């Protein structure tokens, strides 16, 4: 085949990819099933733990013969394979493999982002893990420490101690153009060190996959037609300079495998989340204090921008004078056309950061300077919460968080987080089980569970769910 025929063939494949209809959305883990929000600015956070976004001028690279070798050589050594081992009842994602006494394993990818072993990946790759094992490009297998997670962006930070490691430098996702060549690097179907190529199909894409799980989910994905599949989750999306421009997170599919489109969290947002998790253990998210939707000529004459449906009293927008039916059209001189664009720009900031909002009121353009706040409506740094816990008969329990409560559609409960010798182990219950009922009594939280259990002096039954939704009940031989 001639070079000209090869180039024409590649272009034809890209055009055909654009005709595929997006039917369903699924997270790109190893076995997930198909399923198909106010935050600010172009200024990057001031933390600099991880390498800064590249500030070099934009370069358009058209390699001779469409040669992706250099970028692949840069990135492949810094992309890792992650194995998540959990109890049989744990984990929403991943093709599961039974080992021993009801243990399950799921796999995904991660990207080394610093030479001392910090790794960026997806929250759904590490979710509910009892053990995280990382396989490096040189085949070393090392247990990883979970540093922190952010369900709002489906990102997580883990760390391995393995000496000095190769890592991927952050690129500037703002500087990526539609039509630009990109590479996806990961471990689809447990096939290590897989590289695929494609182009950027769209930016700031909202596919309603994180929003359905979390009220404050942020979706402003880079959409590409680079082939990715389950197991690519947490892997790298890079430009032809080998710079990280996104973390591969989801695919559009009606079959469970690649149907033409994939989605990545943009690198500027990734870097901000990673810096927050390292410094605070929890993401510092600035909020406007509004509910919003795309303007699009609905309920307003404006065809572009973000319409404010409601302003929260005492919030950042309220104090700056914004009102219901105002239409936000820019943040810090960056044009805003959709909710997803606004979400990403605001999500780059912490509480206490000042941003400038350009908006329209009755057709007139106005400016407002406002100070972003946190969920508690203050500008203070958010401290990572340590759940209440107590131990009894060889088992340790703790309160469940709002994300678990909403996902499992339960009103309350307490989770078994550590299991030693005693009555609980003898019952057959596994770690991560969430008790919602003891006998006929509903459990609201850890305090109620402790009060009820300390009164028990004979056998009783507990009922509840594992994190994957599996219902179980157990007899506890007190």
Task: Describe, in plain words, how this protein is organized in 3D.
It is built from nine helices and 27 strands. The strands form four sheets. The chain has a seven-stranded antiparallel sheet with strand order 6-5-2-3-4-8-7. Strands 21, 22, 23, 24, 25, 26 and 27 form a seven-stranded antiparallel sheet that branches. It is α+β, with helices and mostly antiparallel strands and 478 residues long. It folds into three domains: 1-283, Thrombin, subunit H (Beta Barrel); 290-371, Pdz3 Domain (Roll); 389-476, Roll (Pdz3 Domain), CATH 2.30.42. The longest helix has 15 residues, at 3-17. A hairpin with a 2-residue loop joins strand 17 (327-331) and strand 18 (334-335). It has helices spanning 3-17, 69-75, 123-126, 267-280, 316-319, 339-347, 402-408, 423-427, 446-453; strands spanning 25-27, 79-87, 103-112, 118-121, 131-135, 141-143, 145-150, 155-159, 181-186, 194-205, 221-224, 236-238, 244-252, 261-266, 290-294, 306-311, 327-331, 334-335, 354-361, 364-371, 389-392, 395-399, 414-419, 434-438, 441-442, 460-465, 471-476. It starts with a helix and ends with a strand. Residues 1-26, 29-47 and 89-101 have low confidence and may be disordered. It is globular.
């Amino acid at each position: 085949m001639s070079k000209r025929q090869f180039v024409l063939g590649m272009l034809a494949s890209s055009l055909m990819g654009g005709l595929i209809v997006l039917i369903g959305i699924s997270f790109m883990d190893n076995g997930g099933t198909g399923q198909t929000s106010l935050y600010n600015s172009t200024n990057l956070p001031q933390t600099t733990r991880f390498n800064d976004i590249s500030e070099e001028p934009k370069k358009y690279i058209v390699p001779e013969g469409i040669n992706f070798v250099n970028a692949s050589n840069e990135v492949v050594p810094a992309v890792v394979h992650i194995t998540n081992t959990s109890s049989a009842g744990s984990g929403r994602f991943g093709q599961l493999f039974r080992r021993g006494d009801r243990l399950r394993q799921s796999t995904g990818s991660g990207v080394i982002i610093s030479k001392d072993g910090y790794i960026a990946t997806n929250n759904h790759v590490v979710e509910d893990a009892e053990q995280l094992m990382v396989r490096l490009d040189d085949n070393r297998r090392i247990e990883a420490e979970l540093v922190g997670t952010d369900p709002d962006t489906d990102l997580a930070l883990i760390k391995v101690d393995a000496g000095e490691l190769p890592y991927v430098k952050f690129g500037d996702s703002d500087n990526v153009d539609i039509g630009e060549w990109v590479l996806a690097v990961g471990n689809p179907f447990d096939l290590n060190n897989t590289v695929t190529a494609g182009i950027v199909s769209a930016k700031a894409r909202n596919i309603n996959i994180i929003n359905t799980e979390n009220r404050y989910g942020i979706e402003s994905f880079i959409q590409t037609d680079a082939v990715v599949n389950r197991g690519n989750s947490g892997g790298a999306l890079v430009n032809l300079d080998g710079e990280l421009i996104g973390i591969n997170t989801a695919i559009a599919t009606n079959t469970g495998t690649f149907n033409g489109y994939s989605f990545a969290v943009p690198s500027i947002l990734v870097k901000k989340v990673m810096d927050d998790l390292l410094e605070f253990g929890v993401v510092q998210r600035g909020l406007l204090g509004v509910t919003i939707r795309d303007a699009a000529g609905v309920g307003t004459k404006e065809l572009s921008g973000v319409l404010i449906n409601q302003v929260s009293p005492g919030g950042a927008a309220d104090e700056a004078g914004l009102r219901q039916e105002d239409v936000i059209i820019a943040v810090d001189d960056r044009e805003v056309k959709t909710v997803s664009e606004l979400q990403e720009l605001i999500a780059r900031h912490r509480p206490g950061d000042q941003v400038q909002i350009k908006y329209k009121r009755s057709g007139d353009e106005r400016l407002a300077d406002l100070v972003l706040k946190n969920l508690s409506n203050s500008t203070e740094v958010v401290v990572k919460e340590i759940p209440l816990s107590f131990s009894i008969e060889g088992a340790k329990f703790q309160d469940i968080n709002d994300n678990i409560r909403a996902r499992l559609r339960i009103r309350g409960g307490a989770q078994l987080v550590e299991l030693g010798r005693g009555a609980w182990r003898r019952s057959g219950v596994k770690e991560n089980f969430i008790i919602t009922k003891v006998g006929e009594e509903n459990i609201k939280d850890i305090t109620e569970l402790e009060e009820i259990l300390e009164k028990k002096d004979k056998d009783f039954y507990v009922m509840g769910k594992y994190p994957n939704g599996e219902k179980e009940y157990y007899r506890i031989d007190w």
